[in-house]
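Chain X:
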Amino acid sequence: MGKTSSCVYLVGAGPGDPELLTRKAYRVLQNADAVVYDRLVSQEIVDIVPPGCTRIFVGKASGNHTLPQDEINELLVKLARTNHSVVRLKGGDPYIFGRGSEEAMHLSRHQVCFEIIPGITAAAGISASTGIPLTHRGLATGVRFVTGHGKGDEELDLDWRSLADGSTTLVIYMGLAKLPELSRRLIAAGLSPDTPAAAVANGTTAKQRQCVSTLEQLPLALKDIDFTPPVLCLIGRVVSLAHELNWQGLTYENLGLETLDAKVSA
């Protein structure tokens, strides 16, 4: 893309831990004239923004949007035409359930210079922090990222038969509210109710909590321990390794681990 007097950097802030921010992301933040950031960007990362830089919060929560997406798109164009360097800061990676490509398309159509700076997506960051590998020889030959977000009471429109693959790890973003449906539909499509499953709230941060159970029991377990978003769910046989690969000495809530360990060793 041709060089212009200003540029919008679509930056992935990573899963929450400020030390997981890339060096390139840190550099553009330090040189930004304006930063437009989301709800899932941790305060520790927002605090990296230098004094004098304009900070604009455009976070979205379920049923509560500070700005609609169309207005965010227009805001980026407007800022690009009045600021030399604009950072659009997103949790995780901007191109994985971050609507970064929609914003990039809008910038492109308005002939605004932009650059994509990837970030560590929640799946990779939380997988590492909990000791649950996304793939493992003999347990998972692939991984799929799925959004569990749906409109109100509408059921999720997913290819359940395709997802119900015991050799694949499923990572569900934004799936807490729809977890009972996800569990029910995956089991109905053929995935074993005893498939190991985990949920992690506020992953990679000091507030992280994790629960390990089974696909069938995880929705009930989370009700009992009152998890609140953001929550990432991992479903698949790799979750059975959580206890053995728990390098941080994390406390896993619920009673699933002993049962899962027994099933793996059987």
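Chain Y:
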Amino acid sequence: MTAPALTELVAGELAGPIDPRAAAMAEAIARRYGSAARAVLFYGSCLRERALDGLMLDFYLIVSDYRAAFGKSWLAPANRLIPPNVFPFEHDGLIAKYAVLSEADFHRLCGPETLSVSVWARFAQPARLAWAADEAASAAAVGAVARAAPTLLAAARPLFGGREALDLWRTAFALTYSAELRAERKGRAGSVVDADPDRYLRFTGPALVAAGLGEKAEALRPASAAERLSAERLWARRRRAGKALSLLRLAKASGTYAGGIDYLAWKINRHAGTAIELADWQRRWPILGALTLLPRLLRQRAIR
């Protein structure tokens, strides 16, 4: 159960200021889905940027259900079986990508009942509720996001060997980054926390209380050998599942994301400092092209 103090913190953060152009883009995304659209959340590094031109903005579109959003298209079962679907979007000179989840899946994927870290790791970080259909949709989004930070900290606690609250967050994000195919440089997980340490200090106590772990990271008892071993095995399962899921999402994106392999190359070059150049055949056959890139990227440690 989410502690009231955490819910208030999350609600306040989600209601925080947002660039008007990002807000307009969120509304435009919602309009594409009519009455199926419930909420649009803006997240990621662009939240901290003042100049958005040339950047890829990140959104989550929350819908009532996939059939309402996609009709009888193959996209509805694809979104249900391998969530989320991801699409590109352009509006008012800005570019973005948005991921689609149902309200039920968003709530579930922000909590501990899933092996996939993707959603709860992202929404344990700052986000904004850029658009909501009504008060019920807003409350549902707040309730789902409020599950993310307690899930993150509870998952990391058995492997936490430090004494300071910020170190618990750094440990947690390092673990989640290891559970996905990531293009960021080493140390990126720590830089997420260092970008706004006061925010993470404010969230620590309420998130720990919501997770049933007390109020202070400094007071966490050391994990027993059995707890640590169990956690290591669970994180190994998360890594296997997360990287397999990343590959499945990449394959699915070839059908939802025109130019998806170019975006993949751009993102890896931007975050890992590489200089990947794509051949024409890799653009014609994006799934095969992405899979042939994978061994080279792993050898170069461009993705982990």
